[in-house]
Fold each of these.
Amino acid sequence: MGTAIAMAALAVALGALLLWLIIWYFHEQRRRGSQDSQLPPVPEVPGLPVIGNALQLRERKPHSIFVKWVKTYGPIFSIRVGSKSIVVLNNQDVAKEAMVTRFSSISTKRLSKALSSVTFDQCMVAMCDYGDFHRTMKRHIIKNVLGPNAQKRHRVHRDTLIDNLVKDLHTHVKNNGLQPVNFRNIYSSELFRLAMKEAIGRDVEYINVEELGRLSRPEIYKILIIDPIEVGLECADWRDFFPLLKWVPQRNFGRKIEKMEFRRLAVMKALIKEQSKQAASGEEMNCYLKYLLTEGETLTEKQIASLLWEVVIESSDTTMVTAEWALFELAKSPKLQESLYEEIQSICGSDKITEEHLCRLPLLDAVFHETLRTHIPLPIVPLRYVHEDTELGGCYVPAGSEIAINLYGCNMDENRWEKPEEWNPERFLDDKKKYTPSDSYKTMAFGAGKRLCPGALQVTLIVCTTIGRLVQEFEWRLKDGEEEDVDTVGIINQKLHPMHAVIRPRNL
Ligand code: HEM
C-alpha cells in the first residue's frame, strides 16, 4: 500500500515537472516569436507555477475578474490555466480586430470535452468551426427561422406568446392578489413553446420516447434545456487544461454527461419521428424540421437533431435572461418605469403595443440595449483558437493561443461609457430622444463579423414587445429585499435567483 502511494506521488511529481517544462518551452517559443516579429508580447497576468491563474478564476465569473485586471494590465492581457494560454480582450477596438480584421487567423474553436458533448460534437452553427458546414447551416437557420422573412412567417407564434403571458399574469393576480409572481417560471415555459413551434412545428404537451417512456412538457424542458445548461456550466473540467493528466478518470461527471447526451438525443429523435410522420402525410407545416428534411438531404438524423436543438436552446435561454433583467431594473426604478409607460401610452393610446409600434418607442429600445450592456447574456464569446501567428492591439499573438473576447469587459470600459456599472437607459438617447437603429452595434452584445448572431432580430422583437406590453398592463415592484439580489449564475449572467415581483394591473 505504502509503495503504491509512493509510486503515485512520484508519478504526479514527474507529471508536474514535465508540465512545467512544456509550459516553459512554449513560453520561450512565444518570447522568441515576439522578438522575431518585433512586436511586444501580450502583457501576462502573473500566476502560480504549473496551474497559472486557475485559482484566481475559481469563482467562475471570469468576465468580472478580467474587468478588475484591466486597471493593472490594460485592455489586452494574457492568462494561463494549466498549459493553456488565453489572450483576453476587454475593449471594443481589440475585440473588433479579433472578430473582423484578423478573423482569418482566429476562426476555429477548441472546445473542452464536456462542451463538445453539449454541442453534439460541435454540430451547431454557433459552435462549429468556420467553413463550408458553418456557411451552409447558417444560411439554413437564417432562411428558415431567424431572418426577416422567416420571422414574418413565425409572427403568429410571437403574438400567441405575448397574449398567453399576459393572460397567465392576470390569472396570477386574480388567484393570488398582490403576492409576488415568479416571472421566470411563466416566461420560460412560453418561450419553450415558441421554440418548439419554430423548430418542429408544434407545441408538445406529451411525447412517448421509446427509451424513457411518456414525458410531459416540463420533463421535456428539463431534458432539453436545464440538464444541458447544467453540464455546460460545470464544463470547466480541469483535465482539459492539463492534457498530460487526461487519463485521470472523473467518473461522476463523465456519467452525468453521458446521461444528458443519451436522454437529449432520445427525446429529439422521438420528436423528429413523430413530426416526420405528419410532414409525410402532406400536412402543411411551417417549421425548421420540414425544411431540414427536404433541403438538407445529406444530413444525418443526429445532425438534424442537433440543428433543431440549437434553435430550441438558443430561443429559450438568452431571451429569458434579458427580459428578466430588464423587468428587474424597471421594477427597481419606478420613475423610469413611469416614463416608459407614458411613452407607450403616447404612441399606442388605447391599443395594445405590437411589433409595429417598436420603431417609435426610443425609451423602450434604450431599456433593451442598456439591459444587454449591463447584463449581457453571453459575457464572453466562446473561446476562439489562433491557428497562425497574428497580432492584436499592437501585440504579437502566437499560433496555439486561445482568445477570450470579454464583451462584458468592453461594456464596462470607462473610456467609452460614463459610470459603466450604472443601469441608465437614457445614455442611449440623444438630445432629441430619438430612436437609433445602430444601438445594437454599440454594445456588441450580438458579436461582430462573420460570426454575428443571427438571432438578434428575434430577440429584439420578443423582448421589446414583452417589456412594452407588461409595463402597459401592470405596474411592477420588486418583492421587499429583492433589490440587492443581483447575483448571477457563472458565465451566462442569468439571475441566480428568479425575480419575484409584485404586479398591479394598471386598469384596476
Ligand atoms: C439576447 C440574446 C442573444 C445574445 C446576447 C446573443 C449573442 C450572441 C453572440 C455574441 C454570438 C457570437 C458568438 C461568436 O462570435 O462565436 C452569437 C451567435 C449566435 N447566436 Fe446569438 N445571441 C442571442 C440570442 C440568440 C437567439 C434567440 C438565437 C436563435 C434562436 C441565436 C442564435 C445564434 C447563432 C445560431 C449563433 C452563431 C452564429 C455564427 O457562429 O455564425 N442567438 N449570439
Amino acid sequence: MKLRNKAAALLLLALAALLLALLSLRAGRAAPPAPLTRPASAPPRRAAPAPARLPGWSALPGAGPSARRRRPPRLRPRAGRRGAVSLKKSARRPGELRSFQAELPPELWIHLAVVACGNRLEETLVMLKSAVLFSHRKMQFHIFTEESLKPELDKQLRQWPDSYTKKFEHRIYPITFSAGNPQEWKKLFKPCAAQRLFLPVILKDVDSLLYVDTDVLFLRPVDDIWKLLRQFNSTQLAAMAPEHEIPKIGWYSRFARHPFYGSAGVNSGVMLMNLTRIRSAQFKNSMISTGLAWEDMLYPLYQKYKNAITWGDQDLLNIIFYFNPECLYVFPCQWNYRPDHCMYGSNCREAEREGVSVLHGNRGVYHDEKQPTFKALYEAIRDFPFQDNLFQSMYYPLQLKFLETVHTLCGRIPQVFLKQIEKTMKRAYEKHVIIHVGPNQMH
Ligand SMILES: *[C@@H]1O[C@H](CO)[C@@H](O)[C@H](O)[C@H]1NC(C)=O
Ligand SMILES: *[C@@H]1O[C@H](CO)[C@@H](O)[C@H](O)[C@H]1NC(C)=O
C-alpha cells in the first residue's frame, strides 16, 4: 500500500473511532441507557407517537432491539431480547399501527415502483430495504415482476421485522402492457424493459410515483427525493438526472442516432413522475402537429424510432423530452449517482458537496469487482441485520471496506459516499434522543 493511502486509511479509522466515541459519550450524557429509562414522570401520551414516527430507528446507538422500543419503554424497561422480535410479531399493539397510519393519510404516502425480472430478486429486496431503513414516511411499493419471482418476493418482504413492515405496504403486479396492442408490445420489447413507460396508465389511482431500477440504493430518506415533486413548475411532470455530467464524453452525444434531451440525455434509472399530469398532458412529437396523450404516443413513437434506439425505453423517454423540454425537471447527479460519476475522476459536483443521495450501480457493479466502492455499499445494506445498531453493523464495517477500495478512483472519495448516510444517522439519532429524553429536559 502506498504511504498516502495508508495515511488516508489511518485517518479514516481515527475519524470513525472518534465519531463512535463522541456518540456514545453523548448518549451517555443525555440518558444513561438512553431510550430505556425514560423518566417515569414524562407525560405518557408522548410515548405513542414517537416510535410511530421513527419505527425503524431502533437501530440507533444506545437503542435496544425494537421489540423493546415498540412498547412504551416505561412499561417494559428491560424486556429486550434479540430474538424476541419475530416471536412477538403477532403481538403488535393495535394502537401502534393505527397511530402510524392516522398520522399520514394514504394520499400522502410515498409511491415507489420497481420492475424486477430475471435474476434481480435480491437486488430488488436490497433496494427496498434501503428505502425502509432510512425513510420516515409511509410507503406504498408497486412491484412489477414475473410470475415465477412473485412468491419469493412476497415471502421475503413479509419476513422483515414488524418495525419495518409497518412502514410500507406492497402490491405485486404481473408484467402487462395495457396501452395499445399488448401482443405487439411484448414482441417489440423485452417484457420488462418497457414496463416503466406504462406506469401512468396502469397505476390509474396514483397521483405521483418514484420509479427506480432494481440496482438503485437510497442513502438518505426517500422522503427527501419525494419533496422534489413540489419543486415542479406548472409545466413539469417528470424528473430525471442527466445521463452524463460531461456531455462530450457521454454516450448520447457520441453515439445516439435519435433526438435526446439536452446536451447529454437523461438517465431513467431514477425517475419522479407526477402521473396525474402525465395522464392529462398532450405531448408534442415529430409525427403529427397536434399533441398526443401519453399512451397514444408510445406506440407510434416506437414505430418511428425503433431502428435508431439502443437502450429501449430510456431512449424513448429522451425522445419524448426532446420534443417537450418544458415538461422535464432535471435534478442533479447526487440523486442518480453512477460509476460514470467517479470512474474517470470525480465529476458530480453536487455529490461532492452534499454526498451521494441515491446510488445507482448500473453495469452490474454490485456483482463484479470493477467498482468495489459500489459493491461495498450494496453488501453493507444487504448484510445489515435489521435489528442491529446501524453505526456498529453498517457504518463502521462500511468504512473498513472502503479502505480496501482506495486503489480505485471511486474509492478515493469515500466521504462522497458516506456523507448522507452519516447525516441520516446523526439526524435520526438526535431526533431519537430528543423524543425520548427531551420531554423532561424541555419542560
Ligand atoms: C401532481 O399534479 C397535480 C395536477 O397539477 C397536482 O394537483 C398534484 O398536487 C401534483 N402532485 C404532487 C405530489 O405534487
Ligand atoms: C418550467 O421549467 C422548464 C425547465 O426549466 C422550462 O422549460 C419551462 O418553460 C418552465 N415552465 C414555466 C411555466 O415556467
Amino acid sequence: MGKLVVLTLLGAVLALIGERLVAFRQRTNASRAVEPVDLPNCHLIEGLENGSEDIDILPNGLAFISSGLKYPGMPNFAPDEPGQIFLMDLNEQNPRVQALNISDGFDKASFNPHGISTFIDKDHTVYLYVVNHPHMKSTVEKFKFEEQQRSLVHLKTIKHELLTSVNDIVVLGPEQFYATRDHYFTNFFLVLLEMIMDLRWTDVLFYSPREVKVVAKGFSSANGITVSLDKKYIYVADVLAQNVHVLNKHRNWDLTQVKVIQLGTLVDNLTVDPDTGDILAGCHPNAMKLLIYNSEDPPGSEVLRIQDVLSEKPKISTTYANNGSVLQGSSVASVYHGKLLIGTVFHKALYCLF
Ligand SMILES: *[C@@H]1O[C@H](CO)[C@@H](O)[C@H](O)[C@H]1NC(C)=O
Ligand SMILES: *[C@@H]1O[C@H](CO)[C@@H](O)[C@H](O)[C@H]1NC(C)=O
Ligand SMILES: *[C@@H]1O[C@H](CO)[C@@H](O)[C@H](O)[C@H]1NC(C)=O
Ligand SMILES: *[C@@H]1O[C@H](CO)[C@@H](O)[C@H](O)[C@H]1NC(C)=O
Ligand SMILES: *[C@@H]1O[C@H](CO)[C@@H](O)[C@H](O)[C@H]1NC(C)=O
C-alpha cells in the first residue's frame, strides 16, 4: 500500500474514534454539575481514606468493606500496599473500622479486592467471597469469617477461563454465584476501544463447580450485581449505559430480562435496603472527572434510591449528592436500619444516620 492510502486509512480510523469519543462524552454527560443533597448526620469514617470499593452488611449489622481498588485507568492514591478487608460493627454507637486478619497460606501481597459478597450457610457459618485481581488477573477468593477472632480463613481460589475481567459477584449458594464482567477484552487499549465504540460485549456469568455459563449479555459494562430480598430477581448495574437491569432468576439459574430502569448517571454498585427492598445505587455523576483526576475540580458523588422496583413506574430519588468537596467518586451505598455507609473508588467513606 502507498503511504497516502495508509495515512488516509489512519485518518479515517482516528476520525471515527474521535467522533465516538465525543458521543461517549455526551452519552455519559461527563461534566454534569451536581446539585447537592445533604444528609444531616454524617461524618467521614476514620481509617478509610483511599477507597472502599464495595460494602456488604450482614443481617446482624457487621459490615465488610473492601479496600480501594487498583485498576488500570483508575486513579489511586493509596500507598503501594496490599488490599485489605475491613470490618465495621454498625450496632456500636460510634462504629470504627478494623482490618481483618487473613490466614496464612494466602498470597496477601498480591491481594487486590474488588466486589464482595457474603453467604450464610445453614449451619450459620459466614462465608465472604471476594473478587480479586492479583497481578491484574481475575479470581474469586472464598473465605470463612471467624467472628470471635475477627479474621478471615482462606478456603479456596476459584479460577475459570470464563472468569475474566470480573467486577462484582452475588453469592446465592455455598458454591454458586453470579458474576459480572465489566470488559470483553483484557488488553488496556482494546478495553478503551471497547468502551468508546460501545460494543456491548459484556455479560453476567453463573458459576458453580459443575457448570459455568453466560446467563445475560449485551451490557456496555456490567458492574454491580445484587439480589432482591425474596431472591427471585437479580439487579445488574450497567455503568456506561447508565441503567439498572431487573432480571428474573429461573430454577436452572438462567436469567431473563424483566425491565431496564434508566438513571441518567453512571451506576456503579447496587445494594438492597433490608427493611424496604429498595435498591440503593452508588453513582458517578461526572465520569470524566473520575478518569482524569484534578483535585481542583474533583469528581462528585451521588446515591440514588429506587423504590417500587417491580411496579410500572419505579420511584427514583436522590438520597445524597455532593460535588466532591466532601466525598469523591461514590461507588456504593449500603443501609442498615437507619444507618447509611457510602464508599468510594479511591477517596473517603461516609457514615450517616437518617
Ligand atoms: C447533563 O446533566 C445536566 C444536569 O447537570 C442535565 O441538565 C442535562 O440534561 C444532561 N444532559 C444529557 C445529555 O443527559
Ligand atoms: C491514604 O493514602 C495516603 C497517601 O498515600 C497515606 O498517607 C494515608 O496513610 C492513607 N490512609 C489510609 C487510612 O490508608
Ligand atoms: C492478627 O494477626 C497478627 C499476626 O498474625 C496477630 O499479632 C494479631 O494479634 C492478630 N489480630 C487479631 C485481631 O487477631
Ligand atoms: C463497586 O464500585 C467499583 C468502583 O468503581 C466498581 O469498579 C466495582 O465494580 C463495584 N464493585 C461491586 C462490588 O459492585
Ligand atoms: C462544591 O460545593 C461547595 C459547597 O457546597 C462549594 O463551596 C464549592 O465551591 C463547590 N466546588 C465546586 C468545584 O464547585
